Amino acid sequence: MEWLIPVLIVVALVLIIGIYLWATYNSLVTLNVRVDEAWSDITVQLKRRADLIPNLIEAVKGYAAHEKNVFESVTQARAETLQAQGPAEAGAAENHMQQALKSIFAVAEAYPQLQASQNFLQLQSELVDTEDKIQASRRFYNGGVRELNTKIKVFPNTLFVRGLGFHERDFFEVTEPAAIAEPPRVQF
Questions:
Q1: Would you put residue 165 in left (φ > 0), alpha (ψ -120 to 50) or beta?
Q2: How far apart are CA 156 and CA 116, in angstroms?
Q3: Considering the entire predicted model, what is its pTM?
Q4: How far apart are CA 42 and CA 130, in angstroms?
Q5: What is the pLDDT of residue 177?
Q6: Is pLDDT of 112 > 90?
Q7: How many CB atoms lie within 10 A of CB 69?
Q8: Between 107 and 31, residue with greater pLDDT
Q9: Which domains does the chain possess?
Q10: Can you give the pLDDT at residue 17?
Q11: Who contacts 168 (Cβ-Cβ below 8 Å, separation ≥6)?
Q12: % of the chain residues with pLDDT over 70
């Protein structure tokens, strides 16, 4: 009978550790899926914006065809955005896109007829809406990354989670935060 108490204590400890490992693994899987979903939302919004860019260029081109370098920079930034793989590349592409959009809207300000164009106004509105959605998606993604990275780094998780295939994820950061502080706008 004396051996029963130590055996029960060992069984209870093994059970508690097993439950802890099971719960930790499942929560890490959930967080990992949430981060993947959030990144997917970002790519959808970046693609949506990239799809608006050719229409915006065509609208401006009709009024300012001689602004070739502006159109080339916007086209280049659009290509970078579509080719970006992961948060680091997307952040760099985001900086270029914001600068390019500012230059195209600066050109648009010089043409009152363009500013009055219903097509241009609709494109501008859709672009601002998309920029807002990108920012919201970015916040959601970064929040998920923060939770996942914290769960991976805390003790005792840090002792075993990397062995299970979990790793820290990169935040979606831009190198020039001022470039994305607010969506590009045209002042009338």
A1: left
A2: 61
A3: 0.74
A4: 10
A5: 57
A6: no
A7: 9
A8: 31
A9: 4-180 (1.20.1440.20)
A10: 92
A11: 148, 149, 152, 153
A12: 91
